[in-house]
Fold this sequence. Notes:
By secondary structure, the chain is of the alpha/beta class. The protein has 3 domains: 23-141, predicted glycosyltransferase like domains (Thrombin, subunit H, Beta Barrel); 147-290, Response regulator (Rossmann fold, 3-Layer(aba) Sandwich), CATH 3.40.50.2300; 295-376. It has 11 helices and 12 strands. The strands form 2 sheets. It has a 6-stranded antiparallel beta barrel. The protein has a 5-stranded parallel β-sheet with strand order 9-8-10-11-12. A hairpin with a 2-residue loop joins strand 6 (110-123) and strand 7 (126-133). The chain starts with 22 loop residues before the first helix and ends in a 6-residue tail after the last helix.
Amino acid sequence: MAYDFLTKPEMTSAAHNTLSVDGAIYQRLLAKLDESTGDGKTSAKRIFRRLQYAHSKLCIHIESEGHNSRELIVASRNISQGGISVLHSSFMYPGTKLAIDLIPIKGNIVRQRGTVTQCEHRGGRVHEVGIKFDQEISLRDFLITNPKSLLHSREKVDPEAMDIKLLVYSSSTDFSSQLREYLQPTSLRYTFAKTEEDALAKISEQDMVMCFLDNSKMQVPETIRKMREQGFNNPIILVGHPKSSVDMLLISACGADMILPWPCDETTLQCSIAEYVFNPWTTESLENIRMCISPEARQALGSELSKIGIVLDQQLRTSDQKAVHASCLRIRMMAPLLGLTAMKSAIESLTDRVAADGSLEELTPELTEISEICKAFNGVAA
């Protein structure tokens, strides 16, 4: 089962866990368990979704009647907003009170109290122990995500409990019609905008925005960037299916908090919205997710930026103003994610001037400089 989440390195000096597994052996054990138990599938009984949380060394503190605790080092399998599954070498009785040291993305270990709810023998010495937390957690504190991770902490929601103001920006009649059907069972106060101008005029009154991606125009990422520039810091969900991996990377840089593949079913869409209705979030936490980019993704974006620099140079030679403007838009989306702060400031002004001016003649020297920076980019932030 593939996940788009990362976890931090181990934060304990213990030699090994009770199963004495780590590294490749630990990863093979997780894969085998996923294959044999079908982990990751939804359940009619579960409320919270289980997500991989792969740490081979987590410390649990088991309480006893004498108020003394016994410490064990176990490996984790998955985590949810309401509990965690760990792998242990022997049986553990349901009802056992304990505390477990969770490893967050930032800061010190978080000790979470809970109760063993079940223990299943998985073969050999492996026992899977289900622990229910006394208090729910925020998964964003423990899983490194990005907009395309599609982090859903819930498998189902109560539609009538969702009561916020939602703006839907879409020029597609088919999408808007389908979305109305999906939103009808909820208590959301939703409104639609067909044009960018209308959407930008309405966002200040909204709790959340949902935008539909039209691959033929690719204008929505730029609209979302404008929403952020206007000071809208609330969640934005981009709905669509980018045509290429490069387009996905560019969209990831536009300021959306979640990229929801389309088409999807009603439950998936409602769970996506619920992620920001029922779970706490801050402007800072959302910004951290938007700017999360892996080394591999950074390298791919850097390579694409170099190609755009070459294309931009050719477009300037033929004075193709429309094509130059399209290249500038792509560079403007990529620059912040690659840490090119100086170029970001320059390209923002140039992009607007290219759109407004009737001729490229006066802008060619500045655009040529941008082109040369792009062509020379080697993955190191300016």
